[in-house]
Amino acid sequence: MTNENIFTKIKNNIKGLTNSERKVANFIIKEPTEVMFDTINELSKRVGTSTTTIMRLANKMGYSGYTELQRDIQEVIKDGKAPQARLTSNLKNIEKENLWTETINHYTTQLAQFSNQIDESTLNNAVNLIENARNICCTCVRSGLPAGQYFSQNVNRIKGNCNLIVADVSDWVDEVVSMDSRDVLVAISYPRYAKRISDFVKIAKEKNIKIIIITDTYSSPLVDYADVIILCDSNSLAFHNSPILSLIAIDYIINSLAIKESRKDTDRLDDIDQTLKRIDYHTNK
Question: Which CATH code for domain 6-78?
Fold first, then answer.
């Protein structure tokens, strides 16, 4: 066994998993505190798969069996990550009238899980691809739009070579034909996974374009095309996909790019600011 925890192992081996194994992996990532105490039979009922599938997943991750996989999850939670378990338990006792507290706790729990499940090296791999790209294209639709706009605006301010393609209102075909292996496509997609984004990513992969995926689960149809997968839980307390975790991951990428290219950034940002002043863009003097 390596020193990698279960979340890193899943990330590194996801493309070798079957769809049913990915269902189990997604449940482990989203509900680790449940898996800590479930028997293999209980987990199979929760996920809607067989115990054989769970055992096969455990073996592919390098564990001798389900008990060893479960013990690894327990160690991750125990090693300074206990707030996640406490908050998950607390949510069950919050009165529905106190929606503000419940909302805060919901995202605090998500963030605690996120810090367990995604390592800095994954985000740094994305940063390196973006930093060295000739051009960067970001595509998204609907619930992914806030994250796509935030990414594109700030990366373009730093580098000047990033544009946003809203896949369901813009014709990405004109864009992709001029892209090649020197370029990067960042695709942000949440359920119910827009077909136009899937088509865009598939064609981009055929052209050897580097692909960074920001999505919610390893069952996303985009995962098999990705060079870097940034998994961000999009669950909210209501009906909508939430961009909160994806915005945090994107903020890290923006900060890292700004630090890496600080001297060039300063000159470019100064030029932008002077232009905005010339046209009286802001109301305050």
Answer: 1.10.10.10
